[in-house]
Amino acid sequence: MHDVAGAPEDAAGDVTVLAVPVRALRDLVARARGGVVTDVGSTKAAIVAAGEAAHGGRFVGGHPLAGTERAGPDAASAGLFRGRRALLTPTPTTDAAALAAVADLWRAAGAEVVEMGAAAHDELMAAVSHLPHVVAYALADAVGSLGAPAGMAGGGFIDTTRIAATPPGMWVDVFLANRDAVLRATSRFAERLEALRAAIDAGDEDAIRACIDAARSARARIVG
Amino acid sequence: MHDVAGAPEDAAGDVTVLAVPVRALRDLVARARGGVVTDVGSTKAAIVAAGEAAHGGRFVGGHPLAGTERAGPDAASAGLFRGRRALLTPTPTTDAAALAAVADLWRAAGAEVVEMGAAAHDELMAAVSHLPHVVAYALADAVGSLGAPAGMAGGGFIDTTRIAATPPGMWVDVFLANRDAVLRATSRFAERLEALRAAIDAGDEDAIRACIDAARSARARIVG
């Protein structure tokens, strides 16, 4: 495994892993050299199309479900992928050997490999990853605008907005690269928020409790 | 410090700490006996009124900014309050000695004591605590309704919805006890969410970035 900048053109057998914000990926993928090319981008449909256009069956779309709000080499963590899932999005074009090489790489890092289609990946990520970022940014923005004083946060605010500490570069790209699915997920969230708001407004204990119960069982199921 | 159930009527000098959901508090506070009476409820205006009606200056409203999504004796944690803030809401009626006794209790548990008015407390908590719970419940509910499969959550979803694992009893009470302030905070959040949604819909990178920047600086300030 080596960085794209130093990749020799005849490095067949190596796996080149591209890890840059998703809109940069679509350009970078065409310039990658080497045997198998994969990526870790948070959206997959457009990147897989660009990857296969450049590399055919030797491109394998990938996305590990792990990360932190920190960026740069100092944020490296050897155990980051241990016990987490690595999603791979092969197509009928994908070489079996290329897929196996990328899957082995993720297993070596401690991850469990799960395969799915690129479109299904993007719809799923809009719900479980991109929407939480939209919500966390809007929440931190709103609480700030409500005039909360410095240092006056409990664990709920701290956890709920942890991912809102993430720098904008990556997420501007993700929101735009997966715009339609992100908008659908955000609209669904706005509907559920309004249902809970209306229940509180009406003093309707049963309706509040129904929303909380649905939230708790959904979370328990999704977190697994 | 003793439990209200076993409180002797002549236990002057002791501090009775009431820790039940906030709507139960308003009834329980009238039945407490002993010297100083305080509570740990998440809303303060109605409880302070009930506490002073029953105990005059010997009631001191309190609220430690600490807790977890778990409930019951097995969730006890000796270090829970260490380094956290304990908010106290004295009024012109409050005895100075009662306030000092309650403040000493929280300092002994490792907390930093901060005094504020009950109404200001409730408005602040609507923003930094109650709103994050509304949002976390609505988010887990929405992601569940979007059909996310079991076990398919990254750290973002897990953290953002951690407080949505909290059982409903406490939060139905809090949302209703602090309804007006919770509704105001929720409306502000819905506005900020819609601004970010519209920016994504329009593909307006500058507007997305402005929301993210506002969120990041607000979070850094509030977390302190």
Largest interface summary: A-B, 89 and 89 residues
The whole-number mean of residue pLDDT values of chain A reads 90
Biggest β-sheet of chain A: count, sense, barrel? 3 strands, parallel
Roughly how many Å apart are the termini of chain A? 32 Å
Rg of chain A (CA only): 20 Å
Q: Strands across the major sheet of chain A, in which order?
A: 1-2-3
Shape of chain A: elongated
SSE run of chain A: EHEHEEEHEHHHHH
In the residues of chain A, how many domains can be counted? 2
Q: Tell how many strands the DSSP assignment of chain A holds.
A: 6
Number of helices of chain A: 8
At CATH's second level, what is the architecture of the largest domain in chain A? 3-Layer(aba) Sandwich
- The CATH topology of the largest domain in chain A is given as Rossmann fold
**Helix content, binned percent of chain A:** 40-55%
Structural class of chain A: mainly alpha
Describe the structure.
The structure is a homodimer of 224-residue chains. With 224 residues, the first copy, chain A, is mainly alpha-helical. Helices cover 54% and strands 9% of the residues of chain A. Chain A folds into two domains: 4-116, 3-Layer(aba) Sandwich (Rossmann fold); 121-223, 6-phosphogluconate dehydrogenase C-terminal fold (Orthogonal Bundle), CATH 1.10.3660.10. In chain A, the strands form two sheets. A three-stranded parallel sheet of chain A has the order 1-2-3. Chain A has a three-stranded mixed sheet with strand order 4-5-6, covered by helices on one side. In chain A, helix 1 (22-31) runs parallel beside helix 2, helix 4 crosses helix 7 (179-201) and helix 7 packs antiparallel against helix 8 (205-223). Chain A is elongated. The relative contact order of chain A is 0.10. Chains A and B meet through helix 4, helix 5, helix 6, helix 7 and helix 8 of A and helix 4, helix 5, helix 6, helix 7 and helix 8 of B.
